[in-house]
Structure formats: C-alpha cells, structure tokens
Amino acid sequence: MAFPENRLRRLRRTETLRSLVRETRLTPENFVYPLFVCPGKGIRKEVRSMPGVFNLSVDEAVKEVRETRKLGVLSVILFGLPESKDEVATGAWADDGIVQQAARAIKSEVRDVIVMGDVCLCEYMSHGHCGIVATAPQSLGAAAAAPPVTADYEILNDPSLELLARTSVSLARSGVDIIAPSDMMDGRVGAIRAALDKAGYENTPILSYAAKFASGFYGPFREAADSTPHFGDRRSYQMDPANMREAMREIALDIEEGADMIMVKPALPYLDVIAAARERFDLPLAAYQVSGEFAMIEAAARNNWIDRDRVMMESLVSIRRAGASIILTYFAKDAARLLA
Ligand code: PBG
Q: Which residues approach ligand 1 with their CB closer than 6 A?
C-alpha cells in the first residue's frame, strides 16, 4: 500500500499525536551531571570555555547536588582539582583527597543521590598523563620547557594499575557509589574489581569508560580539570577515532574483567559505536556527551546561530536513540528543567 492510502503525515499533525507515537523519550533519571570539585570554601569559578559549568568547593558542590536532585537528576560524577600534583597522583588516592571530601559531604547531606567517582590519574599527576610516566633521565627536569618527542617517554601500564586500584578503594571508602575508570590502561577493570572485593566493597559497581577515544572534544574539560598533558598526547592509551571493531574488543574485555556497565565516549561523533555496542552487549550502556560537544552548542547559541534548547534536546535524544540509556551531560540540569 502506498500513497495516497498511506500518508505518514497523518500522525504528525498535532503535538499530542506526535507524542503518542514518539519512539524515544528522555528522562532526568537517566542523566548524570559532572561536577568539578576544588579546594577552598564558597568557591564557584566559571570555566571559561564552558558557560554555566563551575569549579566548586565542597560546600558549593553540596548545594549544586541538592539543586540537581530537586530537578530529578539522581546521579552526579565527581572530578577533582587537587591542592597539589606529583608523579604518583597522591591526590587521587589520599583519603583526604578532594573528591573523597566531596563524596563524604554529599553522601551525608543529600538523600537518594548516586555519587559516581571518575577514576583517573591525569588531574593529579604533575605531567597530566593518565598513568605513571617513565622518561629518559635527561628530559625529566626539562619536560615542561622542552616537550620530549614520543620516544622519550612511556606511560607505564602495569604500575599504574596499582594506583588506579588504590584510588578506587579510597573512593568507595569515602562513600562513592559507582566507580568509573576513565584512564584506558589495559587490565584496569580487573585490577579495580579485585581490589574492591578484597577491601569488602564487592557490592560497588564499576561503570567502565570502555570505549574512550583520543578525542579533540575533551579540550574544555582539560581546562576545567587542569589536566592537559604537559608533553605528548593520549594516543598511546585512548583509542584511535577510526576504530569500530577495536571498540567492540575493548568493551568485551572490560565485561570479561567484571564491568557492570559500559560507556562510549564522546557521544555525538560516535553514535555508530553506541548503536553497535547496544546491538552486541546486554549491559547497561552509557554515553558521555563531552565538554567539546557542550561547548560547540553553547558557542553557536551565543552567536544566535542555533536555538540552544532545541539543539540540546535533539543531541540528547539522538544519543538515547542510538542506544545509550545513561547519558553523562553538562546539560543535565537544563534538560531536566525543560522536561519538567
Ligand atoms: C580523565 C577524563 C577526561 C574526560 C573525562 N575523564 C579527559 C581526558 O581524557 O583527557 C573528558 C570529559 C569531557 O571532555 O567532558 N581522563
């Protein structure tokens, strides 16, 4: 049967009809709101490249979570800006680390909120890499002034696992509900699972940033979290943007190692990877609409080149339609407001 018997426009005539046949819906419960926690008190410092996103001291972070919760967004993910950085990421695993402090405060002051802890070392390392760096001796001191070429340094995989595991246990101890490793070291999900279990946190789930690509879209985040590598880049651990089949292997391995949930990151430029992961795996699937995706929409909207709210909702619904049920997004609060 074809035209004129068939007219697809019949079901598009009114908003009530469109709503009746809508295939994909967004709900605030599926959003996760990222927060950047910093030392101090009463601090609310806007990130230059991310309008409406702030570095927050612990007291301000608690207020922010209260507001987020009121809007129906039940989950936040914490990133930390430590007091100081070193070569072993002490700020990541110290029990009085900034994220640990924030988690304790949020969990004791806000009810029914899920606190996720991003587990990575880059924000806490003096060099800004996600793992321990081995450098040629002569370039150690000169690292910041004269960036060594690729051959001059290496991100050590296995020694980094111990620090990631230690960080995860410390976060769980401070009340973090879900451990979310984003470092992309091989074997880290297994190492973290074993360490959590050994410390008595066998009920703490792992949301693995399983397919995380080496992306230019992380630019504004690195400003927000002060985590730009001082030399080189992240291509020896994060994935090549060209690789779909490798993404499936990364995810399969993380599942084998004990991941409870998996993530694809970034989101919009990788909708095909999200869709493929949804087809192939049955774990809850998350996607991270990253800082650059957010910043592009904000920047275009500021120029009146696009309708911000409309593009925001369209981008979120497309991530959901591709198959992600959980969306980490800086739009969480604004989108929840529009959905209310
Ligand atoms: C830590 C981490 C990054 C992001 C989340 N966790 C930055 C990076 O890998 O450089 C990016 C999030 C965003 O851009 O919004 N490794």
A: 118, 120, 122, 130, 182, 218, 221-222, 227, 234, 290-291
